[in-house]
Write a structure and sequence with these properties.
Mean pLDDT: 81
CATH class of the largest domain: Mainly Alpha
Number of helices: 18
Number of strands: 0
Strand content: under 5%
CATH topology of the largest domain: Growth Hormone, Chain: A
Order of helices and strands: HHHHHHHHHHHHHHHHHH
Length: 487
């Protein structure tokens, strides 16, 4: 990138500004999780409809984030990042003023447009603002904000709802958003990209339609079944647009996504395993409030505090994991993180109607530790492969990968839990899984976490394979160097 003049002495101020935006956007992707039972009651709705408060936000993120990243590579990251703060803050106020479930869902879309601009560019701005030898620590810290935001949302939401009303989980964003706008103006560097770049409109449109139909199929399938004709038609349309997108990208001089990045199998594995971890944690977090409230009888405030075991452990571990990846390599650290996650989800599959507070925390704590250990080096490895003129795009790829994982996890794992709960409740003619007997809900939860454990095991297998391949490659490189330059 031309005229790239970065003052590294301001790097932690930049980190503070980016972290504030990242926390706001990611907290609001999960803060309503703990409020879902409250929203069902206060807005007179049902489980299937109330999930759209979460899904509408994630759907908007997933479909727009890559286009936003590419646009920022063309016109600059700072103005788009700042505009994201403005739109997000306005959207938050509108959400707080909503008087019906459908108004709330609509305003969540507005809020998500702003969040898209923030999340698409956060890691790119951090990558530019820190020297390469500190990338792991920097992205570890930034990744911590993402992970903490996703999981701390229910904790904050529980405290706010217990003290005030659900409306205030959105109103609290107003002063923070205003402060964030000031910090972006003051500290984020305005680095101008090279000129004569063109936006790939055909690629953007085909990708948008591909993601929209795919995620619509997931959410519709959760309600009517994944083998229903309408769902299958949407999936076929999604695959068609995916094929069209790949064709467009291969025949465009300046494509939205440089497909040659995926020829690097280790890069692709990083994306796949990252997707799986967010798939798992998003599905787990949307189910936990129902288990803790409906089965164990905790209050909304207590639910928020119990889920705090994860962000606390993540906040401590992630920067350390990033620092370790700078010194020992990213691959071994990601494997360790996945092992811890596997143990954690296996432990969660033993939750029951008699689980104590300590028992719950001890089962859930490894999820935070594992996510903290895994995400930092994984993000560092992915951003390390990004050319400087495509930092926004690759940062957007990370964001869409994370959001797709969350959205798919909510839809698929939510559907799995609901179907299993209704099956265990048979022959009762229940319409909602949340009304099933507690034993049926717990049996379904155990099945869901067993399925998650199997998926994490697959991710671990891929990560171990990648570690072995990387070790062999490095060993071969050292051997060739020794033969070429013998002592």
């Amino acid at each position: 990138m031309s005229n790239l003049q970065v003052d590294y002495s301001r790097k932690w101020y930049v980190m503070a500004a980016v972290s504030m935006g990242t926390l706001l956007a990611t907290i609001d992707s999960s803060i309503v999780n703990v409020a879902l039972p409250t929203l069902v009651r206060d807005l007179n709705t049902d489980f299937a409809t109330v999930q759209w408060v979460v899904l509408a936000y994630l759907l908007t993120l997933a479909t727009l984030v890559l286009s936003t990243g590419r646009l920022a590579d063309m016109i600059g990251k700072k103005p788009i990042f700042m505009l994201g703060f403005v739109i997000f803050t306005i959207g938050s106020v509108l959400c707080g003023l909503a008087s019906s479930i459908y108004m709330l869902i609509g305003f969540r879309v507005v809020q998500a447009i702003g969040a898209t601009m923030i999340l698409a560019l956060g890691m790119a701005i951090v990558t530019e603002s820190f020297p390469p030898e500190e990338r792991g620590l920097a992205l570890g810290t930034s990744g911590t904000m993402v992970s903490i935001g996703i999981v701390i949302g229910p904790t904050l939401g529980g405290l706010i709802i217990d003290a005030l009303t659900w409306h205030w989980i959105f109103f609290v964003n107003l002063p923070i958003g205003i402060l964030g706008i000031f910090m972006v103006i003051r500290y984020v560097p305005a680095i101008k990209p090279e000129g004569k770049q063109r936006f790939d409109f055909p690629g953007a449109i085909t990708l948008f339609l591909c993601l929209l139909t795919f995620l619509s199929a997931l959410t519709l399938g959760q309600n009517i079944g994944f083998i229903e004709l309408r769902v299958l038609i949407l999936l076929v349309i999604s695959i068609t647009f995916l094929a069209a997108f790949i064709y467009v990208e291969k025949h465009t001089i300046q494509p939205m996504i440089d497909l040659s990045l995926f020829r690097n199998r280790l890069f692709s594995i990083n994306l796949i395993t990252g997707f799986i971890t967010f798939f798992a944690i998003a599905g787990a977090l949307i189910l936990m409030p129902f288990y803790l409230e409906n089965v164990l009888g905790y209050s909304t405030r207590e639910v928020g505090l119990l889920i705090a075991a994860v962000p606390v452990s993540m906040g401590v571990i992630a920067p350390l994991a990033g620092w370790m990846s700078d010194h020992f390599g990213t691959r071994p650290i990601t494997v360790i993180g996945l092992v811890i996650l596997l143990l954690g989800y296996g432990a969660l599959s033993t939750l029951n109607v008699m689980t104590s507070t300590i028992g719950y925390i001890l089962r859930f704590l490894p999820i935070g530790v594992g996510m903290g250990v895994f995400q930092s080096p994984n993000n560092s490895a992915i951003m390390g492969e990004a050319p400087r003129d495509r930092l926004g795009t690759v940062s957007g790829m990370l964001a869409v990968n994370r959001t797709l994982g969350q959205t798919t996890g909510i839809a698929v794992l939510g559907a799995l839990w609901a179907s299993q709960a209704l099956m265990y409740a048979a022959p009762s003619s229940l319409e909602s899984a949340t009304n099933a007997p507690t034993t049926a809900q717990v049996d379904a939860l155990q099945d869901t976490f067993t399925a998650i454990s199997v998926i994490i095991l697959v991710a671990l297998g891929l990560a171990v394979w990648a570690l072995v391949k990387e070790r062999k490659k490095h060993k071969s490189t050292r051997l060739d160097a020794k033969l070429t330059y013998p002592d």
